Model the fold of this input.
Amino acid sequence: MVLAPIQHLKVEHLGNSNPRLHTDEVLIALSMSAVTNPTAELAMEALAGLRGSEVHSSVILSPVDENVFKKLGANVTFEPVYQTHSLYHK
Done:
């Protein structure tokens, strides 16, 4: 319910061609939902539990996504495969 308007903003008003959200954007949406949704509030409280965890991705993460996991204290690894055919992240 919260993600669709953010995706619409990114594509229709900010000119992004891809509606996918970065990890930081998803966490912002989660924090907004936590105001009225007890389950989202529990998820926010559980973020501290990620410290020291291992996170692995099957594709190379964008610098934004990788940085969010590092800020949360998680150790990030990923496969040497790009998510798209582009050879770099914008």
